[in-house]
Structure formats: C-alpha cells, structure tokens
Amino acid sequence: MPKQQKITLSASRDIPFDKLMLTQTPRDLTWDGLVTRISCPEVPPRVEDRLTDLGLSLSDLARAMEQGVVVHCPAILEQRRKVGLDA
Asked: In terms of pTM, does the model score above 0.70?
C-alpha cells in the first residue's frame, strides 16, 4: 500500500490520503453522477469538483455517516489496533 500523506481540511482535522484516492475517487463520483468536474485552463492545471443535484440529495446521509464515524472512532481505532492495523 502506498505511503499515505495528510491533507488538512480544517484547522482541527488531518485526514490521511494517497494520490490515487485524489484522482480515482472524484472520477468515480463523476461517473456515478454525484459530482461535476470543471477543468480550469490554468498553469498549473486545476479542476474543480461540484456536487450535482443527485450528490446534494445525498449530503445529509453523508453527514450523518460522518457523525457516526466520529462518535465511534475510538472503538474503531481500538478494533484496528487489536487486529494489527494501527492507524
């Protein structure tokens, strides 16, 4: 597995990621109709991802899932530690 880097989304949270995730996940979301990708003709090249109406319709569900993960994070991390997948 490639070494993961961290990206800071806010002042309080670092999230590990790898470069494949940064390209494949938005592409998959685009193919699923959840995101629209806009290419900006700049140097260096840049793209913007925006939620479609379908993507927006799922945002409440995604937020609820995120809140559940935050609440259960200590138990999830403990389970990972038990099976040797230290986070």
From this structure: no
